[in-house]
Amino acid sequence: MNDQKARLGIVLAPFAALPAAEFVAVARETEARGYHMAWTGEASGYDAISLMTTIAGHTERLHVGSAVLPVQTRTPVVLGQTAATLNHLAPGRVVLGIGLSSRVIVGDWHGLTFAPAIQQIREAVQVIRMVASGERVTFEGKFYRVKNFRLTAPPPARPVRVVLAALGPEMLELAGEIADGVVLNWIPPETVPVSIQHLEGGARKAGRTLADFEIASFIRTCVTDDAAGAREALARDITGYATVDVYASFFRGAGFADEVDAVNAAWRAGDRAGAVKQVSRRFLDGLGVVGPGAFCRERIAEFARAGLTQPVIVPFAPGAGADARASQLRTLRTFP
Questions:
Q1: What are the tens digits of pLDDT across the range 284-310?
Q2: What are the residues whose beta carbons fall under 8 Å from the beta carbon of 124, sequence distance 6 or more?
Q3: Which domains does the chain have, with CATH numbers?
Q4: pTM flag (> 0.90)
Q5: What is the residue-wise DSSP string for 38-107?
């Protein structure tokens, strides 16, 4: 894993609830330990841009990325302005990760029309890059219409890097065609090469290769000597995803069809606890990394050998409070 050590990422969202001074200290420790990138997410907690700005402003070398910002909750003009601004604050260290969100987040929480169309991502990337480059933008698309917008602030010296959150073949191919990278999620190492084949197919459409293309994946990781408690927490997390249609389909394709069907049968019957129990040890070990430090380092190395350019540690721990925080910090400090 020598080549990958300098490219290891970590999601700092679990630490976002810390007091500001402690969160800044964690960001600085992340940089000092040699992580390549700190990622932030966005759902119902702190917004990703504020966290990215905080991390970038208190570090010197650490790259920052969003994984991901929903394109449906911000206009691509705003996203382009945001990316350009962040690239001024941390030149060459910012990655804008975008994706399609869910009906609950877009429709219920934000009161906006939900239409999970890949074309929307294609249009958004085009507008974001035009805005951030400083050119005058007039755009007529199916989802976006922009007339005579131009960034009055100077554009950043380097182009904005845009990565897409992708799961299925179509989005993977689109990422390979138009993006600077991809962020995968909940994927076992055995399935990574299949995803890369789709990325390569998209790249061929655009007449390019995957050279310089970031292939990152979030990997739930808990460094612990109490694996049972951590696996139980991981099983609950997986259950929440396995009952969402798009993830259920993806998990089936990754070889966990029996488990997904059993989880959903129990869930539909109203047996939430029973649904969690249907997440097998094989399912858990395929999607998560739980155990002592040496085991976790080797398992992360397997993900890297499968073709990731950036394994991304997502620290998690059972429970809440000081013990969980200590466990998350232990995971942070085990790598790279």
A1: 999 999 999 999 999 999 999 999 999
A2: 71, 76, 79, 98, 143, 144
A3: 2-219+293-316 (3.20.20.30), 226-291 (no CATH)
A4: yes
A5: EEE--SSSS-HHHHHHHHHHT-SS-EEEES-EETTSS-HHHHHHHHHHHHHHSTT-EEEEEE---HIIII
